[in-house]
């Protein structure tokens, strides 16, 4: 339910920001808000408490987020009025997705056993941008369990070139070829 509501709110904010030519500013603001809510659990608890009035929230938000774009400020005030602050993280994620879609960018989560070098990043982008037909925005994850290679997730597509997966496939082929 929250995700559907977050998408509606994010879409409305996206449309205003697009019309007012401030997509990046609003995106930066939303990221700051989402990070603050994530890193200060007491704020989230206080904001979501049933006795906390909308006006109190707006005053605190005005102090904490003093440099917000006017549209982001209105968005945050609207969330306070409607007791929807819990959707901030989801709204930010959806807003970012809408902006990327508008700009022809797709997010790719790249998992490697070791951090990527700048050269590795460039090679990865050069290899995958033609496949997906869009510019890549890479988020890196390091997971030593994959042993080596790379796993790239773009939307609902997964490209698994990890050494762990290759070894598992090899093991399956060997066990499948055993003579009883």
TrEMBL record:
Localization annotation: Cell membrane; Membrane
Stored Pfam families: OSCP
GO CC term, one of those recorded: plasma membrane
UniProt keyword list: ATP synthesis, Cell membrane, CF(1), Hydrogen ion transport, Ion transport, Membrane, Transport
InterPro entries xref list: ATP_synth_OSCP/delta_N_sf (IPR026015), ATPase_OSCP/d_CS (IPR020781), ATPase_OSCP/dsu (IPR000711)
PROSITE patterns assigned to the protein according to its UniProt record, in alphabetical order: ATPASE_DELTA
Chain coiled-coil ranges: none
Top-level division of the source organism's lineage: Bacteria
UniProt KW Zinc keyword: no
Primary localization class, coarse: membrane
GO molecular function: proton-transporting ATP synthase activity, rotational mechanism
Membrane topology: Peripheral membrane protein
Homology family: Belongs to the ATPase delta chain family.
Function: F(1)F(0) ATP synthase produces ATP from ADP in the presence of a proton or sodium gradient. F-type ATPases consist of two structural domains, F(1) containing the extramembraneous catalytic core and F(0) containing the membrane proton channel, linked together by a central stalk and a peripheral stalk. During catalysis, ATP synthesis in the catalytic domain of F(1) is coupled via a rotary mechanism of the central stalk subunits to proton translocation.
UniProt name for this protein: ATP synthase subunit delta
Gene that produces this protein: atpH
